[in-house]
Design brief:
heterodimer, A: alpha/beta, Beta Polymerase, domain 2, seven-stranded mixed beta sheet, 7 strands, B: alpha+beta, 2 domains, eight-stranded mixed beta sheet, five-stranded mixed beta sheet, 9 helices, 30% helix, globular
């Protein structure tokens, strides 16, 4: 089966091309975008360009529906951040937001039309217990009750088991690093926390510095095993890079920071695929200087074959006979990067044979 | 062209291959299946519905498929696929047609926030629409089925769609879902009513779907003005009683019955306020359908 055209990527690259789509193409675009969680992003892009009125009514209704959900969601997240600030203020800790909630509170372009299920925050490892206690006092409770899961998260992962607010049912991920303890590279979270910047006037709500934000997004995407949001995350990187890339010092800072944090490889992939799939403008010099972390041509060719498939919308029209294999191999790769083989075997054995019995 | 223009074998082979683009209310659903009972249900209940193949656009793509495991043969099951995604647990194969109906409701209620959506039946007569929100078991569908067999136009027995800009009720005329005792009650009340085969032991008990009146289907593009909100309550042996509801109470009960009230934020509040304002609100207790129909026939359009 031949994979059809990735219409979502086409419209993300050239929003103006949407006005000349046929209804049959709109049908496919809506389906692909729904599966990629990018319906509302497309609405936002077309709205920015003043093109909404040129879209046929039928597909436009689906874009509007998604936009309604996202706008309401943004409102709920803003409120959630206020509640978090109140909880962490009791231990004099600022709220350092990551990913979706950070884009939203810092009013960055990837927040437009982005839906996400949970709020992610970064807390210094030394204050993790205090932060957890403060959050519990303010209504958040751990959602994983299995003793193995608790231990697994606390020993090997970079975050606490997800917490859920008892009244609002909102989900919170409390991170103390951006990669698992068991991963092969160890970016120093203290550096990220020190460089975090306040959102507006308020010193108690912060987001990562621009370069760190890009590096985190890149690290997250290219260590992730389940890529059903792969294209959405790549679209985030695309808008972050286009937004910050105008500043002259951004690219050189990005490169040196990547080396400092041992994240040059995920950065290479992020720039390579953002450019390849979404046409993100990257200065020539960046790729030339990146020779240290640039994989061999053979590895790049293999990764292109894998990510070329996995970063398309998870929709039958964007799949060919190798898509399933590509996704599976990247899933294995992600686990390989996140934990040693021995730990992986131990973890999978426990998940397969022991966890279910005890729960 | 309507579904009835296809012979049963043509309908079955179309569902099996390219699929059927069925227009119901504002939505086009692209349905595919090789399950015969589903084709029969569609042929029986959707005969008067127009096909919408010409544009190549469908709002929802649904596929009823057997699971890719032993349950394809052993105590066979059916899966509802929403454009390749499986949102629900499988059901016994015998429940395939009800599953299509439930799945189509889910497609609308979960993906159509361009409307305010209430879990309510809507019927119209002489320019005024009655909205009947109710929890399961309150006798909403039974009363709705009775009224549409006595001259009311069916807009929906399950989902009230309210247009954001105009506040008008948008028809989503689809087969009426009847459960357990209601099936026999409606068969006795209107022997001419066309009902699908009864399916037993579903999560809602025994279910059957009633074919909507052809006139309601052909008027599926005509919106209606909200005039009354009636909260029905079936009570065995009860005296027929229509009592006014205070608007504030009606408002809160409407909010409880809404699918996406909170999603719409302040706009949802405003729409609900306008809706309750425009309507006379009642609680209606009944046990006898003939008396109920008489009470509804006497409803006077609100004076504003």
């Amino acid at each position: 089966m031949k994979a059809a055209h990735n219409l979502v990527a086409q419209v993300l690259r050239h929003p103006e091309s949407a006005v000349s789509l046929s209804l049959a193409e709109w049908d496919l675009l809506i389906r692909q975008a729904r599966h990629a969680d990018l319906l509302a992003r497309i609405y936002a892009l077309l709205d920015d360009q003043g093109l909404i009125d040129s879209i046929p009514a039928k597909p436009c209704a689906h874009l509007e529906s998604a936009d309604t959900v996202v706008k309401r969601h943004a409102q709920a997240i803003r409120r959630e951040v206020l509640c978090l600030r109140k909880a962490l203020a009791t231990i004099d800790l600022p709220v350092i937001l990551l990913k979706g909630a950070a884009y939203l509170m810092a009013d960055l372009p990837p927040a437009r039309g982005r839906i996400f299920s949970d709020v992610d925050i970064l807390v210094p490892k030394g204050q993790l217990n205090q932060a957890e206690a403060a959050l519990r006092l303010h209504g958040w409770a751990s959602s994983h009750h299995d003793a193995y899961d608790q231990r697994y998260y606390r020993i090997w992962m970079h975050e606490l088991p997800p917490m859920m607010h008892l009244k609002r049912q909102s989900v919170l991920d409390v991170h103390h690093n951006i990669l698992p303890e068991s991963a092969r590279v160890h970016p120093d979270p203290v550096k990220l926390i020190e460089a975090a910047v306040p959102v507006g006037e308020d010193q108690s709500v912060k987001v990562l510095a621009p370069v760190d934000m890009v590096l985190h997004s890149a690290t997250h995407l290219f260590h992730e095993g389940e890529l059903e949001h792969g294209l959405r995350d790549l679209a985030d990187l695309n808008s972050l890079l286009r937004h910050f890339g105008d500043s002259p010092s951004f690219w050189s800072t990005l490169e040196s920071r990547a080396q400092e944090l041992e994240l040059t490889r995920p950065l290479f992939y992020a720039l390579h695929y953002a450019n390849l799939v979404l046409g993100t403008p990257i200065p020539e010099s960046v790729f030339i200087n990146q020779t240290v972390s640039k994989p061999s041509w053979l590895l790049v060719a293999i990764m292109d074959a894998l990510y070329g498939r996995a970063l398309a919308p998870v929709h039958p029209s964007c799949s060919d006979w190798l898509t399933g294999t590509a996704r599976w191999l990247l899933y294995v790769r992600a686990h390989w990067l996140r934990m040693s083989p021995w730990l992986l075997v131990h973890h999978l054995f426990h998940k397969a044979f022991l966890s279910q019995k005890s729960s | 062209m309507n579904v009835s223009a296809l012979t049963p074998p043509e309908l079955f082979s179309r569902l099996k291959e390219a699929g059927l683009f069925l227009q119901a209310g504002p939505f086009i659903t692209h349905m595919q299946t090789s399950i015969r009972s589903v084709a029969e249900g569609i042929g029986l209940l959707y005969a008067d519905y127009p096909l919408a193949e010409d544009t190549g656009f469908a709002d929802f793509h649904v596929h009823l498929i057997p699971p890719a495991n032993l349950r394809r043969w052993f105590r066979p099951q059916v899966l509802f696929s929403f454009d390749g995604r499986i949102p629900f647990k499988p059901l016994p194969l015998d429940q395939a047609f009800p599953m299509l109906e439930w799945g189509m409701n889910w497609c609308v209620s979960g993906h159509s926030h361009q409307y305010l959506i209430l879990h309510a039946a809507v019927m119209e007569k002489q320019g005024g629409a009655v909205i009947m929100p109710a929890p399961p078991g309150a006798g909403k569908s039974t009363l709705c089925a009775a009224l549409i067999n006595r001259g009311w136009r069916l807009l929906s027995d399950e989902l009230a769609l309210i247009n954001k800009a105009s506040g008008a009720l948008v028809p989503l005329c689809r087969p009426v879902s009847l459960k357990n005792e209601s099936i026999h009650v409606i068969r006795r009340f209107e022997p001419c009513a066309v009902l699908s085969r009864e399916v037993r032991d579903t999560m809602k008990g025994t279910v059957a779907h009633m074919k909507p009146p052809a006139g309601s289907v052909t008027q599926s593009h005509v919106s209606a003005r909200p005039a009354w909100i009636v909260f029905p309550k079936y009570q065995p042996g009860a005296v027929t009683r229509l009592e006014p509801q205070p608007k504030a109470r009606a408002f809160m009960r409407m909010v409880e019955s809404a699918f996406n009230y909170s999603q719409l934020g302040p706009q949802g509040f405003q729409m609900m306020e306008n809706l309750v304002d425009a309507c006379d609100c009642y609680e209606f207790t009944y046990s006898n359908l003939d008396e109920a129909v008489a009470v509804f026939a006497d409803l006077k359009l609100p004076v504003r």
